[in-house]
Design a protein that fits this description.
Layout: H1 2-43, H2 48-150
Length: 151
């Protein structure tokens, strides 16, 4: 995600540079066209090659403008994609925090359960030991009582 975000920023920067370059080209061509128009206007009639060059220049300018519009659209799309990726990264970061909290809570519950199980084992062992002592004492008493009755 970080790589995608970095790539989107790079593409956006390249598109902005390309758009700036095209704007500069359009501005410089516009300055040349206006200066050649004043020269042609002074001459009265423009030669055929100048008219052809002016037509080519206008076609190139239209092409440059369409390229500029296309680049601006692409730049806007890259910006939107970057924003989307940033939002997605924020959502993932929030989910990661929630998961970390859930893991901590589950680990705490596991420790509590282990402690509880250990206490129960100790209680069972104590009861078993007490029962076995009580049973052995009971069996001795029963044996002695049986011997006393026989006598």
């Amino acid at each position: 995600l970080v790589q995608k975000l970095s790539a989107a920023r790079g593409r956006e920067a390249v598109l902005m540079q390309e758009a700036e370059r095209l704007e500069n080209v359009l501005a410089s061509r516009g300055a040349r066209t206006s200066s050649s128009a004043t020269v042609d206007g002074d001459a009265g009639v423009a030669p055929v090659h100048l008219k052809q060059e002016l037509g080519e220049h206008r076609a190139a300018r239209r092409s440059s403008r369409s390229d500029l519009r296309r680049l601006r659209v692409q730049c806007t799309q890259e910006g939107e994609q970057r924003e989307h990726l940033c939002q997605h990264a924020d959502v993932l970061e929030t989910n990661l925090q929630h998961l970390r909290e859930s893991i901590k809570e589950a680990e705490h519950q596991l420790r509590v359960s282990r402690d509880d199980a250990e206490r129960k084992r100790a209680l069972v062992a104590t009861l078993q030991a007490r029962y076995s002592v009580d049973a052995s004492v009971q069996s001795r008493l029963s044996f002695q009582a049986a011997q006393n009755e026989e006598e």
